[in-house]
Amino acid sequence: MAFICIKNDEKIYSFIYSLKDWIALKEDKASSFNMACCGNQAILKTSKLGTQFFAHKAKPKDSNCSTGGETAEHMHIKYLVMKELDRNGWNVEVEKRGVTPSGEEWIADIYVEKGKAKIAIEVQWSPQTFIETKRRQEKYAQSGVRCKVCVVA
Question: Which CATH class for the 72-151 domain?
Fold first, then answer.
């Protein structure tokens, strides 16, 4: 599942659309939809849980596109959190990549900004050690980003 797509050369997010607008977007035959990850043609889908997302129209041959093995439930929780944050005026990014001042890379499930606030949100569906959680929190802190971990499993 992907939450980002390129519609007519403009980045769009699936979670910003109401159900009515999502259905209208699915029926939009005049626009082109391409996957942000690889540029291949995209289709708009809705999961059994109600998660609106983009998928490859045809399986990519030369691409490493994937969701990293995340469960449908994990993706749905991320979708609901992003949708609510967007609705409340936060600037939302999915799978935001960053680097600490010392060069360590991090990827936030959800990254939001509003005013001066910068927050990474990690949706933790599978078990994770306290040491790993603390390590990730420290990376965000070094980058000037607050982190909230949402444990749902």
Answer: alpha beta
For residue 28, give every residue at least 6 positions away whose Cβ sits within 8 Å of its Cβ, in sequence order, or none: none
- Report the C-alpha gap between 124 and 107 in whole angstroms: 13
Q: How much is the pTM?
A: 0.80
d(CA 153, CA 12): 29
Q: Flag whether pLDDT at 22 surpasses 80.
A: yes
Cα 141 to Cα 146: distance, rounded to the nearest angstrom: 6
What does the domain layout of the chain look like in residue ranges?
Answer: 4-56, 72-151
pLDDT in tens, 133-145: 899 999 999 999 9
- DSSP class of residue 2 equals B
Question: What average pLDDT does this structure show over 47-58?
Answer: 91
